[in-house]
Amino acid sequence: MLSKILWEAHVPLVVVRSYGMIGYIRVQIEEHAVVESHPESEMPDLRLDRPFSALQKYMDSLDLESMDNKEHSHVPYVVILYKYLQLWNQQHGAPPKNYKERKAFIELCKTGMREKENNEPEENFEEAVKAVNTSLLPTSIPSGVQSILNKAASITPSPTTKPFWIMARALHEFVTSEGRGALPVRGTIPDMTADSEKYIKIQNLYREQAAQDADWVLRRVQELSQQLGPRKIVPSLDNDVRTFCKNSHALRVVKGKSITEEYKGSINLGEIGYSK
């Protein structure tokens, strides 16, 4: 059977049939790796609970209390959240973890809000308050991505290793060393009310850190690839690795079944939503 031969040879098979106005398509593939999965709800990667050194140094250099009203009302909300998170941690020993603590943290942020000349609240502080639930989440690795890293850790690269798994192996090594348990910085930040100078400065800090993290992974991919011999499989390194790192929080691997295997077993009607 063609499907069995191609499955054993690790070659994808696409079966298409048409009956007049009706038809179907069936893809037989052992594994499909997804790098750019475009998740519907994506939280910003601000690292406020564990800021990298360049970000922390810049944030610490800013003093909200000494700013005049105009400058104060144009500080990016990421700075506001960082400053009040430091104050909160001094008082409580750890970032807010639940609804009650986050509500109390919001009230703490509001204590620093000043009224503008028209007696309206500062937009940047209002943005900070709205961003608490999404921007103060602990920096962590999603369970699905962690499963991929665990598998990558057990892989010994060979000439037949797919580029995805070479990059995943390098990513695993980054997480356990340079990343100190975290994925590479994504390098993007949300839009926010701010003066151009400070916003661009912070934006560049995130971008530069993302580039440094991707460079580390890239070097490791190159080293692993050089070990593969004359039949080595090397991705188009620079762009592929940077895209891989930027989307590392949403990596997915979809496992397939062979058509032969499906015909051998009985169909589970529960899996297709059948009910009597």
From TrEMBL:
One of its GO terms (molecular function) is ubiquitin-like modifier activating enzyme activity. InterPro entries: Ubiquitin-activating_enz (IPR035985). It comes from the Eukaryota. This is NEDD8-activating enzyme E1 regulatory subunit.
